[in-house]
Amino acid sequence: MKKILLKNAKVVDDKGIRKSDILIDDEKIAAEEKRGFFEEGEQKGEFKIIDLDGKYIFPGIIDAHTHYLLRSRGTVTADDFYQGSIAAAAGGVTTVIDYVDFPEDGDFKRSVAARKKEAEESVIDYNFHQIVQEFNPEISENLADLKELGLASIKLFTTYKDVGYMIDRKMWPDLFKRLKEIKILPQVHAEDDSLIQDLKEVYSRRNLIESRYHPAIRPAAAEALAVKDMGEVAHEVDIPIYIVHLSSAEGLEAVRKLRAEKAQVYAETTPHYLMLDNSYLKREDAQLFLMTPPLRDKYDNQILWQGISQNEFQVVATDHCAFNREQKMKSNSSLEILPGIPGTESLLPLIYSSGVRNNRITIREMVELLSINPAKIFGLYPEKGSLEIGTDADLTVFDPNVEKKLTAENLHSAAEYSPYQDFTVKGYPVMTFRRGQLIFDNKLRAEKGSGKFIFAHSSSLL
Ligand SMILES: [Zn+2]
């Protein structure tokens, strides 16, 4: 296979921003040099040349929070690993970290193997977080298997007791001690279940259960309480925790308080908590904007953006969980609507347009949030999240001048709607390289199943 020369690029990675040419050899980054360095080889026809004419190259974007092929309430998400990964590739994403359901028998070897099988059709690379709902001596023992299986993190829930996801609070200290010992990072979906159960009861009794009541039934206070509770226990055990999809100003305030006490709390938020608010839940198609935690106030959007600007978040990921219109509109009870929205494909364009263009963050900080940090935190660095010589040639080529409306027609999720359909972004990925192969540029060029599982090492936080 001929080497590929990407010339006249503006490269952004952990070393900063510079103008250079990047040479790809098979799956790896072979060289990076100043413009003109490769002229001789160019003239001899040694490379396939792509002139980027000043466009950006980022290390491949990583969506650290996706749910492809998620089975929920008797149905399954519209995006499986094939369709979901096509949408991801179209959005400049080269790696996702998805989830593995908790195995009833605590056999993680089996659960991870089964999930790997389901992910085999992906066109981009992937890794997983293992969901853990229980803790006992056998599970304690089995958790060490995750390391050998190449997973760096587990996910805990402080809510959804009714469907069995919630891990009992009595188990937290011993679980955290074990995780510390074997260097596995705990993630938490933080919402206090008892408060939510009480509110559910209060609102249900009055039949106030449509979408617009979703934020009242699952308030920001529930998030803040759970962050505080779990943060304190983790702090006592002296292990870092990673809060997924932090949604509210109050939640962020709880994170700040823990950090002031020197607890090691890391936080992820999503484009929807930055850019959508609960006024969408009063629309006729409110169901399309329902996820958990719920959309908050415009004020929360503002405070979360401030948090992004002040480097209080380490990762922006999407919680991509795509159901189609028919699945979403089936009920208008917030207690029954399938929660989740599509997101991966619009992650980079939204954060660039709203974050970088509005001077809330620098382009380098954006690359940290969307690629470098998730790679480090979930043990994929430097193979992913960097442009170091000899590592995987995962590259996102980004044109800051392309304008696009985020309509369903322009996007690839099988959800066939976008919660951002009224948004026009400026700046869009135009080529996606995964391990040296151009997999997307206006159209899909990758074969089904060409993505692969990437083995994770320990989190940089541990
Ligand atoms: Zn999720």
Automatic annotation (TrEMBL):
Keywords: Hydrolase, Metal-binding. This is Dihydropyrimidinase. GO terms for molecular function: hydrolase activity, acting on carbon-nitrogen (but not peptide) bonds, in cyclic amides; metal ion binding. PANTHER family: COLLAPSIN RESPONSE MEDIATOR PROTEIN, HYDRANTOINASE/DIHYDROPYRIMIDINASE FAMILY MEMBER. SUPFAM superfamilies: Composite domain of metallo-dependent hydrolases (SSF51338), Metallo-dependent hydrolases (SSF51556). Gene3D superfamilies: Metal-dependent hydrolases, Urease, subunit C, domain 1. GO terms for cellular component: cytosol. The keyword 4Fe-4S does not apply. NCBIfam families: D-hydantoinase. Residues 56-438 form the Amidohydrolase-related domain. It comes from the Bacteria.
